[in-house]
Known about the structure:
The protein is of the alpha/beta class. It has helices spanning 16-27, 68-79, 109-112, 155-161, 166-173, 232-237, 243-257, 306-324, and strands spanning 9-12, 33-35, 48-49, 55-56, 83-85, 98-100, 116-118, 123-129, 132-137, 143-146, 148-151, 176-187, 207-212, 225-230, 265-280, 287-288, 294-296. The longest helix is centred in the last third of the chain and has 19 residues, at 306-324.
Amino acid sequence: MVSTPAPTVAVIGAGIAGLACASRLAAAGMTPVVFDKSRGLGGRIATRRGPDGLTFDHGAQFATARGPAFSAYMRGAVAGGAAAGWDLPDGASGDRRYVGTPGMSSLVRPLAEGLEIRGQHTLTKIERTQDGWQLAFAETGQTMVADRVALCVPAPQASALLSAFPQAVSALSRVDVAPCWAVMIALDDVPAPGALPDTGQIADSPIAWIAPEASKPYRVAEPARLVLHASPEWSRDNLERPAEEVARLLLDALNSLSKGSLPATTHVAAHRWRYAKTQVPLGRPFLDIADGTLLAGGDWCLGARVECGFDSGVSLADRILHDIG
Length: 325
Ligand SMILES: Cc1cc2nc3c(=O)[nH]c(=O)nc-3n(C[C@H](O)[C@H](O)[C@H](O)COP(=O)(O)OP(=O)(O)OC[C@H]3O[C@@H](n4cnc5c(N)ncnc54)[C@H](O)[C@@H]3O)c2cc1C
C-alpha cells in the first residue's frame, strides 16, 4: 500500500498566533515549519535587552485568560515556570494578569517546544503554482513550496503579501491596528513612593501606560527601570518622528506627570510598534483565502489581546486539521 505523505504546512510568524497554530498541528502529528523575519520568538510579546543586560518588556505588558483554551495554556505555562501571575502595584481588580518569566517573551516558550522554527526568514511573496504555494524569502533568496500556508502576521503586513487576492485585501482593509511608541528608561535610583501616577490615573498626557519592570515577578530590582507606552492617538500623530526625539518628548511628559523630580536617567530608548493594538478586528477567528490552503490569522481577527492571537492560531490549525481529516 502506498501511503500519501502528510501535507506540508508553512506557518509564517512566530508570534503567539503562529506558534499556537504550529503547536496544535504538531500535537496532531504534523510537522509544520515556522518562519519569522526576526531572530527571536514571540512577536509583540517581546523582551528587549538593553546595555549591561538590562531587560525591558517593551511590547505586551501582560496576558489575561478568559476562555478555556488559553486558560489551560496559561495554567501549564505557570506550572512549567514560563509565566507567573502579576499583581499590579495599584491593586487593580479585574482579570488575573500573567507575565512571562523571566521576561515577557518566555510566555510563548511552551508553544515553541519541538517545533522547527526558522528565524531571519522574511516572506516576500506567495504564489500559487501547480505544486502548491511557493514562498519566497528575502534573506536567503530561496523559495519553498508548501501545500498549506498559515499567514500569522499583523493585518497590514498580511494585506501587502496578499495583494493578488482582492477579496482578502478588502476584508483586511476594514481591520484597524493602532501603532504604539514604547520608551524604555533606566534610572540611577528608585523613584520615591507615589512619585509616579498609576496608569489608571494618567489624564491629558501623551503617555497611556507606565510600568515599573521590578513590579513584575522574577525581574531584577536594580537598576530601576520603567516602560512607557504612548497613547494610540499620540503614537499615530508622531509615528514618523525619529526615535531619539520621541524618547525625549515622552521623558518630558513623564517628568510633568511625576510629583517632584525623578532620579537621573542612565538609559533611554524608544521603540516604534507600527502595528500594535487592534482597534477594529475582523470579527471572525481567521481569514480563509483559498479553500483552507491559504489562511491568515492573528490577534487582529478577534481583538487587541494576547489571547486573541492564541485563539486565532488554534482555530486556524483546527481548520487545516478538519480539511485533511
Ligand atoms: C506596545 C504593546 C502593548 C501591548 N499590551 C498588551 C497587553 O498588555 N495585554 C495583551 O493581552 N496584549 C497586549 N498587546 C497585544 C499583543 O501583543 C498582541 O495581541 C499579540 O502579541 C499578537 O500576536 P500575533 O501572533 O497575532 O502577532 P505578532 O506578535 O505581531 O506576531 C507576528 C509575527 O510575524 C512576523 N512577521 C511579520 N511579517 C513577516 C514576514 N513577512 N515574514 C516572516 N515573518 C513576519 C513578526 O516578526 C512577528 O514575530 C500589546 C501590544 C503592543 C505592541
